[in-house]
Design brief:
- With 448 residues, this protein is an alpha+beta fold.
- It has 2 domains: 37-126, no CATH class; 171-447, Jelly Rolls.
- It is built from 6 helices and 22 strands.
- It has helices at 2-29, 37-48, 66-69, 73-82, 105-116, 216-234, and strands spanning 144-147, 152-154, 163-168, 175-183, 190-198, 209-212, 248-253, 260-261, 266-270, 275-282, 289-291, 294-300, 306-314, 319-320, 327-335, 339-347, 352-360, 366-372, 383-391, 396-403, 419-420, 431-438.
- The strands form 5 sheets. Strands 1, 4, 8, 9, 12, 13, 16, 19 and 22 form a 9-stranded mixed β-sheet that branches.
- Strand 17 and strand 18 form a beta hairpin.
- Helix 2 packs across helix 5 (105-116) and helix 4 (73-82) runs antiparallel to helix 5.
- The longest helix is centred in the first third of the chain and has 28 residues, at 2-29.
- It starts with a helix and ends in a 10-residue tail after the last strand.
- Residues 4-23, 238-244 and 441-448 have low confidence and may be disordered.
Length: 448
């Protein structure tokens, strides 16, 4: 009797354990709840995407409402999985930047599971407030907007030479700027645009760096440039403030470029009576178009603790052979004063594939500052450093760009010809823009 009872208890315990085990398996295999647009997806899009994905901006579709977003759910998944969106191309292992466009692993997973689960809307009452934007601007409502003095008619066909337009600022006193956004009036035809500052009282402070030749071809070019500068000096002519343009560069607009918002305590000086020179590269698209581009600026009420300056350095003395798939072109500058670099802007045309920036210090130490393993001509970016790069006098910054002039490059206009520096998209550039300030407290070479 006792044995029968024991067998019954054991059997009952086994059944109970089996039931518990099956329950655990069922729980483990229960599908995870599908995210909804209102509760999980919209917050991600509002935080990371709708600055561009809204009406009137650069992205091809708006992702603000569920009705606008739902048809693109599969595309969103594919773009996120491939890393094409959000468009950020810097190597995460090199440097940190305030304007990084990245999604966390959890955010990516949410968007993918939403698309795979049928992209449900969820409870619309749970939708977060839609972000508000200044009409036509990314960085907020500017305090000052300066437009080209007149509209320009872009023809439907043909090559359009660079156009230059000078606009007065009408500033009656020195003005300090804390944010700059350059906007195309007709984005479809504006390939890129540079805005230069022309100071009526002279060139202002010289740049805090000098060009360093990287090869014989570049050495000859730098020698010619220095000869011109010495000739100006011998005739008591004012030196070129930046050496590479009609004044000093203060703003840039290129495909996918971002506004510049300077760090607290820093601002860029626009002297009273200054003029702005718009250098605009137009590209005919098959339809005649009228453009009147502009620059918006946000101001500060008093001088900052650090003056921001804008500059650029280039290597126009190169030639990429036909068929070359991994051609490297370097350029280098040496700092003549202690300097803090706040932002770096690499620019090539459609053959450019990657970039590397390396700083070398007077004590021989080197560090990579910025690495872009997959440069994308359609998303050009000012990389704004989370912490300024502090370099002493005598330090160098080397910029290396690689190009693909082979048939494997689907964007290559003609892989059968050698390519050098040129203004048009079918030509090439090796160009770097920087924002920096001069720091008297930064040690010089002799202080090392």
């Amino acid at each position: 009797m006792q044995g029968r009872w024991s067998r019954t208890v054991l059997l009952g315990g086994a059944v109970a354990l089996l039931v518990v085990s099956l329950a655990d398996v069922a729980s483990a295999e229960a599908p995870e709840a599908v995210p909804t647009f209102a509760e999980e997806v919209a917050p991600i899009l509002y935080e990371n995407c709708v600055t561009c994905h809204r009406s009137g901006e650069i992205a091809p579709m708006s992702l603000i409402t569920y009705a606008e977003t739902r048809p693109w759910s599969r595309s969103i998944k594919n773009q996120v999985m491939s890393g094409q969106m959000p468009p950020w191309h810097a190597d995460p292992a090199v440097g940190r930047f305030t304007n990084e466009r990245r999604l966390t692993a959890a955010e990516k997973d949410t968007l993918i599971r939403w698309a795979d689960g049928g992209a449900p809307e969820g409870d619309s009452a749970s939708l977060p407030p839609v972000p508000t934007f200044a009409d036509g601007w990314q960085f907020g409502t500017p305090d000052v907007v300066i437009k080209m003095p007149e509209s320009f008619e872009v023809p439907a066909k043909g090559e359009v030479a660079y156009q230059y337009f000078s606009s007065p600022t009408n500033f009656t006193e020195d003005t300090w700027v804390k944010a700059i956004e350059v906007r195309a009036g007709a984005r479809s035809v504006v390939h890129h645009m540079l805005v230069y500052l022309k100071d009526p009282d002279g060139p202002g402070p010289e740049r805090a760096y000098k060009d360093v030749p990287v090869d014989d071809r570049h050495k000859a070019l730098v020698a010619r440039r220095r000869a011109r500068e010495e000739k100006r000096a011998s005739h008591d002519e004012a030196p070129a403030r930046d050496g590479n343009g009609p004044g000093v560069l203060i703003g840039t607009m290129a495909p996918g470029s971002n506004p510049i918002v300077f760090a607290p305590g820093t601002a860029l000086l626009i002297p009273k009576g200054a003029e702005l020179m718009f250098q605009v590269h137009y590209t005919a698209t098959g339809t005649a178009t009228v453009d009147r581009s502009m620059i918006g600026m946000s101001l500060v009420d008093q001088p900052p603790t650090r003056e921001m300056r804008a500059g650029q350095f280039i290597n126009p003395a190169f030639e990429i052979p036909p068929g070359a798939s991994d051609e490297r072109v370097d350029t280098m500058i040496e700092f003549t004063e202690g300097t803090e670099i706040f932002a770096i802007f690499p620019h090539t045309h459609v053959r450019g594939t990657r970039w590397e920036y390396q700083a070398t210090y007077p004590d021989g130490r080197s560090e990579r500052v910025l690495s872009i393993p997959n440069y994308d001509f359609n998303w050009q970016t000012y990389y704004v450093l989370e912490e300024p790069l502090v370099v002493p006098k005598g330090a160098t910054l080397e910029a290396s760009a690689w190009y693909d002039n082979s048939t494997a490059n689907k964007a290559n206009p003609d892989p059968t010809i050698p390519v050098g520096w040129g203004e048009q998209t079918w030509e090439e550039m090796q160009y770097t823009g920087i924002y920096y300030s001069v720091s008297a407290a930064t040690p010089s070479t002799n202080d090392q």
